[in-house]
Amino acid sequence: MITLSKNGLPSKRCAALILNHVASLSICPSNIQITRFTPISTRSLVKRNFHSSRPLSKEDYYKTLGIKKDATAKEIKKAYFQLAKKYHPDVNKTKEAQEKFQEISEAYEVLSDENKRQEYDTFGSGAGAGGPGRGGGQWQYKGNVDVNEIFRRAFGFGGDGTFNWDSFADSQFGHSHAQEMVMDLSFEEAVRGTQKNIFVNVVEDCPRCRGTQVEPGFKKVSCPYCNGTGMITQRLQGGFFYQASCNRCGGSGHYNKNPCQECEGHGQSVQRRQVSFNVPAGTNDKDRVRFQVGKNQIYMMFNVAPSLKFRRDKDDIHCDVEISIAQAVLGGTVKVPGIMEDTYVHVPPGTSSHTKMRLTGKGVKRLHSAGYGDQYIHIKVAVPSYLSAEQRALMLAWAATDKPKSGTVKGFDESSAKTSAQSKNQEGSKSGTNTTTDRESPRGGHVHDSKGEAKQEDTESSKERKSKQSASS
């Protein structure tokens, strides 16, 4: 059995008191001697909400919450919220998560209170929740860690399974870390860049109380129930003593008799602000960017509408340009649309349809490097669906000089074209035979270099001679 030497204090109760660090050792008589150790069931201690705490080094609380030593109260609360959302028993049912939630709750219990944090930073080698320690080389947290109470005191909700994390993040911290805004952009706005105005919810100090949590003209008073320590000592049945957070001031050590009416004593409120930000040139569809609004970070995702003129391939753009048959055959220039400005491009003679041309540096601005992409032009030869009579005649005339590679030309008969060509050639040769050249006759007349006309002239001369002979006789 365990023997005690003073005042007849029950041995098991005092042993439990010593083993679980739930009360200061100063309440026990200094001449108590334990002659034999008797194991005590820890189950009964859990029922009494006693929690043994492992010693933590001076830096452990900051590392547990993942913050720096100079973190502000807002940063401490936000870090605790993010970790609580991950390890809260309502979200994560594993044993490791419950232990982790116990650790972060204990760290927040100390660092969120100015007095406890100051003691922890100053007397970290041995200070405890009830005051500075006198040795041992370690911080010893002697208070009872009621995680539900800490959570309720921090955020105004309990761990009853009805807590809405996303709604709380939206209302208390503006936009939660998992939420993002969506903005619609035209193709031209995305590739050229633009400036947009949007409304966002951001968490800022209350404009009425300026973060003091009290009505203007009033101040917080020291809590009369805990004398400003934030902790109270309570006695259970059987003589057990334990320390817990003051239920009057919520462990803050201060009592707010006149809370701010606008923020309800929180010191912060969600403000709706109109902000303008620049959309970078070269933004792609579904791109996400992060921009800062005060101390808040907003994630924006862009929905880029397709273009009727251009097709985008990373930093390059493609477009179709139509040219006429005359431009394709004879060459010329054509107007090409661009993302910044239009330009004229030379079309070489004999350009066929589906010819691709490249304009260097006329594409989209590169987001993550210097320079621009290229613009590719796809030539389309426009064929008219209707021809006038003059155009049809010209096309048939051109078809007569151009032999198709295969098949025939509609409206043009190849055999009739050959017959007409032969008849034209015969007429040309006949007119060449009847053509004569006049020359002067020795008799002073003109004779033609034609055999038929020469014979006719000889016949007439013989008739004249015969008539002269008959007259003389």
TrEMBL record:
It comes from the Eukaryota. PANTHER family: DNAJ HOMOLOG SUBFAMILY A MEMBER 3, MITOCHONDRIAL. It holds the Pfam family DnaJ. Keywords: Chaperone, Metal-binding, Repeat, Stress response, Zinc, Zinc-finger. HAMAP family: DnaJ (MF_01152). This is Heat shock protein DnaJ and Chaperone DnaJ domain containing protein. Gene3D superfamilies: DnaJ domain (1.10.287.110), Heat shock protein DnaJ, cysteine-rich domain (2.10.230.10), Urease metallochaperone UreE, N-terminal domain (2.60.260.20). GO terms for cellular component: mitochondrion. Residues 437-464 have a biased composition (Basic and acidic residues).
